[in-house]
Design brief:
By secondary structure, the protein is α/β, with parallel strands linked by helices. Helices cover 67% and strands 6% of the residues. It is elongated and about 100 Å long.
């Protein structure tokens, strides 16, 4: 245990330090932009990013993952802020944390195994597309120098790593190109154009809302939605970081950690947040692996705001846009095009539907949930193919008998007109799965008995027989 913690904190100090600095610089425009989406002051997003990153560094289950204010959460929050104001948002953030802690305690991460690979691919690709689309307004319609700086940033990001590995390329690009922009006086859109940065530390305060059932009725639906959206995005991002680093993470601990971070964050004036795939990818690609990188990202972010605020506002947006475009290119699964051709049609459809819904709604949870439901429907359709093979007066059932297969099962035996007074239904290659299956079985028995035919059941396994015995009184009375 101690060895593991030591590795997570001090196993990669230089890499984590430099990566954390890069991430902090990339967090600022995102946090401000998400604050604008939510309809709150830019400092609400910046305080959230600081509080969440610092807290999750200690209590999270996925070292090296970055959590902060996010666009997905901002979209959920916006109507609450519009109707009730900031204090209700802070109260909802605290309640979100409590709900997430409960989810973590009941081991919600076990549900991750029900998310198919096609949905994972769709999630990653839609996120890459959303990150790219968020950068477009910062480029289109701007000056020629904007395009030049974006191109220069991308050139540095893809060429520098060949010659310099000691310092992350994004950090060199930010420092170098910001210096050029300041000294040349070139007219570029900067971080300062997004909103006012106040050079003050967050203060502890209890949200100024009535502690009544009425308040709970207002914030609970938002908090529940935030808790679910936040955990879906966080747990899927944790899986992506697992795959990128070839390491495992504690998903239930991560769920609890997200809750603790949001609970604390709400008392310090921050909006609800969760894991950020873009910044997490930047962190890993810049050499970040441990908890120290997440802590540095949070601490350096507040250092930038408090101490270097006057310099930070001069960082050109085209440089940060270039870094985010690199993230999009690195995040997008380019094998998806081959996947669409090679994978089973149902998997390809699930992947496309996930992408389309996420991109259309800008809501990751809706796309993931739709993808999981669609996968489940395809799976049910696939396994509901039940065969009845006649061998004299013995009918061999092949395939599982459950609610989706009962119609065909009953329909087949409706047409039976045996000359014998007895038929045998053999379930050696089948299994009864639910109450619908038992109900269908009784219906077939009644149909054949009405024709003067006795039914004998054979080949039932122990679980099928147990189900029949348990549900006998229910289904026979239908």
């Amino acid at each position: 245990m101690m060895q593991s913690l030591k590795q997570q904190w001090f196993g990669n100090i230089r890499g984590d330090l430099l990566a954390g600095i890069v991430v902090a610089l990339a967090l600022i425009p995102e946090a401000i932009a998400f604050s604008i989406i939510a309809g709150v002051d830019p400092m609400v997003g910046l305080y959230a990013s600081f509080c969440i990153a610092v807290t999750i560094a200690f209590v999270g289950g996925r070292p090296g993952m970055i959590s902060a204010a996010t666009g997905a959460m901002a979209l959920v929050i916006a109507p609450l802020v519009k109707d009730y104001g900031l204090n209700y948002l802070l109260a909802a953030t605290i309640l979100t944390g409590i709900i997430q802690i409960i989810f973590g305690l009941i081991k919600i991460a076990k549900l991750m195994k029900f998310i198919p690979n096609a949905v994972m691919i769709g999630f990653v690709n839609s996120l890459a597309i959303l990150i790219f689309l968020a950068q477009v307004p910062q480029i289109i319609g701007m000056s020629t120098m904007t395009y030049i700086f974006v191109a220069l940033t991308l050139l540095l990001l893809y060429t520098l790593p060949r010659y310099i590995q000691v310092i992350p390329a994004p950090l060199i690009a930010i420092v170098g190109l910001t210096s050029i922009a300041i000294y040349s006086g070139v007219n570029l859109r900067t971080i300062g154009d997004l909103g006012v940065i106040t050079q003050t530390l967050p203060k502890f305060a209890i949200p100024n809302v009535p502690f009544t059932f009425e308040t709970l009725k207002i914030i609970f639906p938002y908090s529940l939605a935030l808790a679910i959206v936040g955990l879906i995005e966080s747990l899927l991002t944790a899986q992506i970081v697992d795959d990128m680093t070839g390491t495992e993470s504690e998903k239930n601990k991560e769920a609890r950690g997200q809750g603790i971070a949001n609970f604390i964050n709400g008392f310090f004036g921050g909006m609800a947040g969760c894991a950020m795939i873009g910044q997490s990818v930047i962190n890993v690609k810049s050499g970040g692996r441990g908890r120290f990188s997440t802590l540095v990202a949070g601490l350096f972010l507040i250092f930038l705001i408090i101490v270097l605020g006057d310099l930070v506002v001069k960082i050109p947006m085209p440089v940060l846009v270039g870094i985010m475009i690199m993230v999009c290119i690195g995040t997008f699964d380019w094998n998806s095009f081959k996947y669409l051709v090679k994978a089973p049609p149902s998997d390809a459809i699930v992947m496309l539907v996930t992408v389309i819904i996420v991109v259309y709604t800008h809501d990751l949870s809706k796309g993931v949930i739709a993808g999981v439901i669609l996968s489940a429907i395809f799976f049910v359709v696939k396994i509901s193919t039940l065969k009845v093979i006649k061998n004299g007066d013995i009918y061999n059932i092949e395939g599982p008998l459950f609610f989706a297969a009962t119609h065909n099962f009953v329909h087949y035996f409706k047409k039976i007109d045996s000359m014998n007074t007895k038929v045998t239904i053999d379930f050696k290659n089948s299994r009864l799965w639910d109450e619908s299956a038992i109900g269908a079985l009784h219906k077939v028995e009644h149909l054949l008995q009405a024709k003067g035919i006795t039914v004998e059941l054979t080949g039932l396994d122990s679980s099928s027989q147990k189900l029949i015995n348990r549900l006998q009184s229910i289904t026979s009375s239908h």
